[in-house]
Each structure stands twice: as structure tokens, then as C-alpha cells.
Specification:
The complex is a heterodimer of chains A (about 280) and B (about 400). By secondary structure, chain A is an alpha/beta fold. In chain A, strand 6, helix 5 and strand 7 form a beta-alpha-beta unit. Chain A starts with 5 loop residues before the first strand and ends in an 8-residue tail after the last helix. In chain A, helix 2 crosses helix 3. Chain A is globular. In chain A, the strands form three sheets. A six-stranded mixed sheet of chain A has the order 5-6-7-3-8-9, sandwiched between helices. Chain A is about 35% helix and about 30% strand. Chain A contains eight helices and twelve strands. Chain B is mostly helical. In chain B, about 70% of the residues lie in helices and about 5% in strands. Chain B is built from 16 helices and two strands. Chain B has a two-stranded antiparallel ribbon. Chain B is globular. The chains are: A alpha/beta (about 280), B mainly alpha (about 400).
């Protein structure tokens, strides 16, 4: 068994007098996707910063075995006056690539993220969504083994969000490890091998089930308001057939999100601080 | 987490800082203004003279036979006063004569420069000052000197065989020029370092950068990249000056600099570079502590005070290079902040040995290294600090002390 790529081991951290993490642990295996979920201010960004080395724990250990980390911070700055390609080349060179390889890598990601036409444009002239894609490319350009993405979907339109999910799947297939902080529970449920829920200043591991126990069925009968009801997985075919027989309209069939239920239960009693 | 080679990363950051700023029109506007000022300093006085005196006249120096005696009378304000000049075998004997009251003062040669030493409260000091100020021998040709000697002989006076060397004049000019260059570079590019550093924090771009490199690497890259920009600007101005001197045929005040040996130019560059690094790292440290670019403006004036002090120190040392004030000031050649300018001044005055220069440069290099390390610590420690500073020039320093505690 290989060593984990990154670990927080019994970490305690506070901003001045505001405790954020107390004895929190996290393990990121090579080639896995981990989610990070928590209420606003629970400490997700702090957890990311600890892994990157921007913050140091008061107690406990942070171990990162990756040569490089592709970090996409929540609050993202850019060199706004720089051209897009020049900026990516700059970061690639910081990651150790030589001139020609840096240019090659920049062009590859510009193509992949559909930014090739804006290659020479100054970053400040791009739309917010495109700036976000530049930042995403910035986290990937050095081909790091470990990706730490903090709220990567914010500000993206549905098309670009799909592109992002596609990229995430590609990275996973390429054996990269990803820690993904997001409030999009459905995406985590689908993508993550393990989800760490930040509650009570600890990180609680939850493995989303690939087979839903039940489904949420949303039906409408005539002009009446729609109704939702929970249907166990084994009874779903019969429930659908019966509804259609009664002339009802099936509006939605959604697998019940085990993760959302667990998160709500854990987060309910969690009085968080504005510290993340 | 292992990082790529830090030296390589410093080069990458430096090239970015350089590349981004060298393209800005503002940089070239400053270069152009500087070139115009250099040309104005070179040709301005002659041009003004020509405008005031439309008929060109040959430069001539006539020496009134009683000139020196007249100076003396003017100094002591006694119409019938007489000056007596004697020659002592050595400087030590002359000093002893002053101590014993047999002499009011004496002239001696120090690295080719005529220097007056004596009781500051004696009238002869005034003569010395007058003599130095006029720099008589500098402007006298051989026949005029002979005429002066003959005139003085009639009054029992004698001209000592000394001349103000052109090298010494050039050396003094170089010291003052270094002061101006340092002040200008620190004022301009120190602030650029500061703003560039604080912007990284303000825009939160630093978070992404610190996942790739150490704060020390980032700050060194900034200081060196922006320093290269300053060097380019100075190089262009120097070339403009060289061209102007060549065109003017050497007839200007600054053309004396041409007589300096190449080693002095090398040392000038070395002291200027070390001075820039010293102040540059201080700006990097202050910016690491600041949260807004506007806070850098508060910090600029206090940082410039030591340069001004050093400049006044060099003026004092130049006026009495062998006196007690100059000796005290020679210590400042080893004091951070004062060292870049005072070290070079002491070198020109002959008040420092070659090993002293090496020691001075070594101490400055250590100081630069330490201050950069501290700046990097501050940068990382206060990366996520968003509180604006309280008002007042000492705010950054106060916050820095709290951070260190």
C-alpha cells in the first residue's frame, strides 16, 4: 500500500482567540477525489491553507508528499495586466518547466479550456468566468500530483461547470489526487471517493454510497400543486407505473442524497465562526 | 512539500517584474526626463552664460598680486593684518605646532586634496575656508602661480607646493552623485517594490504564488527584477552623460568624474547596488507588514531619513576629512542604512583601508540577507491580515514590533 499523498494528523489551529480546528485529521490517497464540506466559516479554506503551507498548525502535523500542489484558492488574484499566455508561462516556469515546455503547456491548457482566442489578451479584459478558467489552468499547468480546489465552480456558467467536471474526471483518470471544497453536494456525491465534513472543528469522513437507498419522486396531478414523496429503491418501478396509471405527471425522480442528509445532521448543531 | 530550484524561481519572478514594468510608458517617460536633466546640467550653465554674454570671451584668470593677503584681511577684518606662512617638515610636527600655539593652522595634502587643519576658533580657519572655497591653485596657470608667488614673497608669504588634484575633485563629485542616485533610486524603486509586494497580498494572488515558492524567493525576485530596471535607467543616464561630456569637450563641472580611475566607477556601482538592496529589502519588509498600497506612502519618508543623514554626514566629512568629526563619521561606514553612502565617502577621503571596504561590504551584505529573511517572515505571517493600519508614520513599525513579539 502506498503512502497517502497528503495528511492532516490531529491538527489544531486557531486565528488569534478563534479556534477553527481541534484535533482534525484528513488523509488524501493517491489517485482519489476527496470532498470538503462544511458550513460557511467552518474552516474549509483554512484546511486548504494548512495543506498548502500558508498556515502552520498549532498542534499536530501536516504531511504533503507531492512534489507540487495545484492550488486554486477561494479568493483568487491574478496579474491583471499580464497576457493570458504570458501569465500561464510564468507559472509553468515557476513550477520548473523550461521555456519551450512552459509555452507548450500554456498552449495546451489554453486549448483545453477554450481560451486560445484570448491568449494574448490582458487578463483584466476577460470576463469573470474566463478569468476563473485562467485560474483553473494556473492550478493545472505544472502537472501537479495533488490538486487543492477551493470552490472551483463559483462564477461558472453551466457549460463551463460541465467542462470543469469533465476536467476533474480527467485528472482522476490520470491518477491525480483532488481535494475539492464545494457546497455542491450532488457533485460531491457523484465524484468523491470520500467526503470530509467539517463539523465541531473536526473533520468527519463519509463515503458516499454509489447505490441510493431511496428516491425522491415529484408528481403533479392536474392543476394541483406538485407533491414529493420518498420511495425505497426496490419499489420505484411500481410507484412510477402506478402514478402514470393514475394520470399523474412525473416531474422528477431524484436519488436520495445520503450525503446531504448526513451533512445536515452534522451541521445542524455546529455553531461555526466566520473564520474560514 | 519539495519546491523547484529557488534560484531559478528568483530569476523567473525577477524577469516578470522587469518585463511588466519595462513596457510601461511611465518608465520611459522618467528615463527621458532624466536624460533631459543630464543634458541640462551639462550644457545649461554654458548656454546661460552665452545668453547673458552674447560676445564670446576667452576664459582668463588674472591674479591680483595682493589677492591672498586681501583674503586674509577680509577674514580677520583688519586692514593692516599680515599673514605668515611657514613650512613644517611633517604633518605631525605641524600638529604639534598647533597644539603648542606656535601655529594657528596648516595646510596638508590628503590623497591629493588640499586640507586645512587648525583651531576652529582661530582666524586662520577663515583663511583656510576662503582659500579652499576659491580653490585658487586649481584655476591658476604656471605663470599666474609664479606671479602670485612673487607677490606673496614681497609680504613674507610662500605658496606651498600643493595642488588640488583633479582626482580628488572627481571623488567628491562621485560621493555627492552617489547620494543623489541612492536617494532617487530608493525613492522611486523602493516604493515600486513596496507597492508590488503589498498588491500581491491585497489581490490575494500571493496565496497562489506561495503554493509554488517561498516568500524569500518571491521577495528576492521582486527586489532584483525592479533593481535591474533601476540599473537600466541609470545606465541610460550614464550613457547620456558620457555623450554630453564628449560633445561639450569636457568643459563642465561633472566632467571631472572622467578623471576617476575605473576601480572608483566599479566601487560606485557596487556601493549603489548594495545601498539599493539594503533599502529595497526594508521596503519589502514594510510592505509585507502593510495591508494596503496606500500605507506604503506613510512609510517612505522615515526610510529616506537615513539617506539624508548620510548625505549631510558626507558633506561634514568632506569639509574636514582629517578632523575629529570625520573620524567619528568613519564609524558610520559600518552602520546599516548609513553605510552605503558613508562607506563610499570614506573611501574617497582615504579614511578607510581596502580591508575596511571589504568589511563594510560584507556587513552590508549580511544586513541585507537578515532583513530579507525578516521581511519573508513578516510576509508569510501577515499574508491573511486585512486590517488597515492606524494612521501615523510609526504605524508600520509598531505593527512590526507586535508581529515580532
Amino acid at each position: 500500500m502506498t503512502d497517502p499523498l497528503a495528511q492532516l494528523i490531529d491538527v489544531t489551529f486557531a486565528y488569534a482567540a478563534t479556534p477553527v480546528l481541534e484535533g482534525a485529521s484528513l488523509t488524501l490517497e493517491a489517485g482519489s477525489v476527496a470532498g470538503l464540506l462544511g458550513r460557511n466559516g467552518a474552516g474549509k479554506t483554512t484546511t486548504m491553507r494548512l495543506l498548502v503551507g500558508i498556515l502552520a498548525p498549532e498542534r499536530g502535523r501536516v504531511v504533503v508528499r507531492s512534489m507540487a500542489v495545484g492550488y486554486l484558492p477561494e479568493e483568487r488574484g491574478l496579474y491583471r495586466r499580464m497576457g493570458v499566455r504570458a501569465y500561464l508561462q510564468f507559472l509553468a516556469r515557476l513550477d520548473g518547466l523550461t521555456g519551450a515546455r512552459a509555452r507548450e503547456a500554456a498552449d495546451r491548457w489554453l486549448d483545453r479550456l477554450e481560451l486560445a482566442r484570448a491568449a494574448e489578451a490582458a487578463i483584466e479584459t476577460l470576463s469573470k468566468g474566463n478569468q476563473q478558467k485562467v485560474q483553473l489552468a494556473a492550478s493545472l499547468i505544472g502537472d501537479p500530483q495533488l490538486l487543492l480546489w477551493d470552490e472551483p465552480f463559483s462564477g461558472l456558467d453551466p457549460v463551463n461547470r460541465d467542462l470543469m467536471l469533465e476536467l476533474l474526471a480527467e485528472q482522476r483518470r490520470a491518477g491525480k489526487s483532488v481535494l475539492l471544497s464545494t457546497h455542491r453536494i450532488a457533485d460531491l456525491e457523484e465524484l468523491a471517493d470520500v467526503v470530509y465534513i467539517l463539523a465541531g472543528r473536526r473533520l468527519l469522513a463519509h463515503r458516499p454510497s454509489r447505490e441510493p437507498e431511496a428516491y425522491e419522486l415529484e408528481l403533479r396531478s392536474g392543476a394541483q400543486e406538485s407533491i414529493s414523496r420518498r420511495v425505497p429503491r426496490s419499489e420505484l418501478p411500481q410507484a412510477l407505473a402506478a402514478a402514470l396509471e393514475r394520470g399523474e405527471t412525473v416531474l422528477r425522480v431524484r436519488p436520495e442524497q445520503d450525503l446531504e442528509r448526513v451533512f445536515r445532521e452534522l451541521a445542524a448543531g455546529d455553531e461555526t465562526d466566520a473564520a474560514s | 512539500m519539495r519546491r523547484p530550484d529557488a534560484r531559478r524561481q528568483i530569476g523567473v519572478v525577477a524577469r516578470r517584474e522587469w518585463g511588466e514594468r519595462v513596457r510601461r510608458p511611465g518608465f520611459w517617460a522618467t528615463v527621458l526626463v532624466g536624460v533631459l536633466l543630464v543634458l541640462a546640467a551639462q550644457f545649461g550653465p554654458a548656454l546661460a552664460n552665452r545668453l547673458m554674454h552674447p560676445v564670446p570671451t576667452a576664459r582668463a584668470y588674472r591674479v591680483a598680486p595682493r589677492l591672498l593677503e586681501g583674503l586674509y584681511r577680509q577674514a580677520v577684518r583688519k586692514p593692516r593684518a599680515r599673514l605668515r606662512v611657514v613650512e613644517e617638515a611633517s604633518r605631525a610636527r605641524a600638529l604639534a605646532a598647533v597644539r603648542e600655539g606656535r601655529l594657528d593652522g596648516f595646510f596638508s595634502l590628503s590623497r591629493g586634496r588640499l586640507v586645512y587643519s587648525g583651531h576652529p576658533d582661530q582666524v586662520s580657519t577663515l583663511v583656510g575656508s576662503a582659500y579652499n572655497a576659491r580653490e585658487l591653485t586649481r584655476y591658476l596657470g604656471p605663470s599666474a602661480q609664479a606671479a602670485l608667488a612673487a607677490a606673496l614673497a614681497r609680504h613674507g608669504l610662500e605658496v606651498l607646493p600643493v595642488r588640488v588634484s583633479q582626482r580628488a575633485v572627481g571623488g567628491r563629485l562621485a560621493v555627492f552623485l552617489l547620494g543623489i542616485v541612492l536617494y532617487m533610486v530608493v525613492l522611486t524603486y523602493g516604493v515600486v517594490i513596496g507597492i508590488s509586494t503589498v498588491e500581491e497580498k491585497e489581490t490575494r494572488h500571493a496565496e497562489m504564488l506561495l503554493s509554488r515558492l517561498e516568500p524569500t524567493t518571491l521577495l528576492w525576485g521582486k527586489v532584483l527584477g525592479i533593481g535591474a530596471l533601476a540599473a537600466l535607467q541609470l545606465l541610460i543616464w550614464t550613457l547620456a552623460w558620457g555623450l554630453a561630456v564628449a560633445l561639450s569637450g569636457g568643459a563642465s563641472a561633472t566632467s571631472e568624474l572622467r578623471r576617476l580611475p575605473p576601480t572608483d566607477f566599479l566601487l560606485f556601482g557596487l556601493f549603489a547596488a548594495v545601498g539599493y538592496l539594503q533599502y529595497g529589502t526594508i521596503f519589502a519588509g514594510l510592505a509585507s507588514r502593510a495591508t494596503r498600497a496606500s500605507e506604503m506612502n506613510q512609510a517612505t519618508l522615515p526610510v529616506l531619513v537615513p539617506i539624508m543623514l548620510a548625505y549631510f554626514g558626507t558633506v561634514l566629512a568632506m569639509s574636514g576629512p582629517t578632523g575629529p568629526v570625520a573620524r567619528v563619521l568613519s564609524i558610520s561606514a559600518y552602520v546599516p542604512f548609513l553605510a552605503p553612502l558613508m562607506g563610499f565617502a570614506q573611501l574617497q577621503l582615504g579614511g578607510i583601508h581596502w580591508w575596511g571596504v571589504l568589511l563594510d561590504l560584507l556587513l552590508q551584505a549580511v544586513f541585507v540577507w537578515l532583513s530579507m529573511r525578516y521581511a519573508a517572515v513578516l510576509f508569510k505571517r501577515h499574508l491573511l491580515d486585512y486590517r488597515p493600519l492606524r494612521r501615523g508614520p510609526g504605524a508600520l513599525a509598531r505593527r512590526g514590533r507586535r508581529a515580532a513579539g
